User: What shape does this take?
Amino acid sequence: MLLDPYRRKINYLRISVTDRCNLRCCYCMPEEGIPLISHEEILTYEEILRIVRVFATEGISKVRLTGGEPLVRKGIVDFIHSLSQIKEIKDLSLTTNGILLRELARDLKQAGLRRINISLDSLRKERFCQITRRDDFERVWKGIEEALSVGLSPIKLNMVAIQGLNDDEIESFARLTLRLPLSVRYIEYMPSGNGEEWKKSDLLTIPQIKSRLEKVGKLISIPSDQWDGPAKRFRIEGAIGEIGLIGPVSSHFCDDCNRLRLTPDGKIRTCLFSDEEIDVKELLRKGGSDRDLKERLLVALRAKPERHPINTHQFKKCQRNMSAIGG
Ligand code: SAM
Assistant: This one.
């Protein structure tokens, strides 16, 4: 079992397989994109598999693939199949913007993926286009339908709620759970990514979101299970789907943090908001042993901060863009 210095059990590795993305969400990336990591610097699938196999023997049992947009990386389905064969990995999931899901959902399911998170910040075509700078709302919606129809479950729909941008859709997202078996999750807007633009006044806190949801129906609390991480779960009375509330900015989010991150270029990050990075790629490429890899994992574990600094005066935006860390 991996315990950090604050006695949190770390069992979750979030892996960013690419910094490339097929959207340009206004709060995440500038319109022209960001300088990309060169292909040689990006970990090969074989390298990632080796890292996961070694870390799994130490206590990592949950893996989520993210990016950038993970589905744009060639060979992702076969890679997921290989990950699904690692017996210590009990929970394998993926976060996507859904654009390529209609084409890939069935293959992903067959490759061993059980569940999926889909990021969607608006249910309105024009607003989707304004936020993402791409006219792909219908593709994403068809992707969600396909994910439902092939039986990926649960399907979590993640909405970043931003004051004045999409806050008037909080209730519409919640109403989806009345008729569809989706878990709609509201995430506070964080000062990261293209976050020069982040202003405290854009933030819609979880308590504010919750009070809006209470107008849709009675919220019934659902006990968390071991894979939930920091989300607080609810169901609107009579709904078939669920609500999840994730408050990295306003709540004691870090107490339940169980994760490390692996960047596309092979650095372990101990926290989304810390620039501390522990290099594993260099070790792998210089012929490091499994034992050396385990040692690096322990270095990362020991370096994990007790909490992120967002609400402190020491806070400064992290050096890497969200797309190059893995959101
Ligand atoms: N492309 C994939 C996707 O769309 O889910 C994975 C990467 S994306 C960076 C992961 C998630 O990070 C998305 O749900 C996105 O909305 C979220 N995100 C990006 N910048 C954020 C910010 N400043 N605050 C909160 N969430 C953010």
In short: The first helix runs from residue 45 to 58.
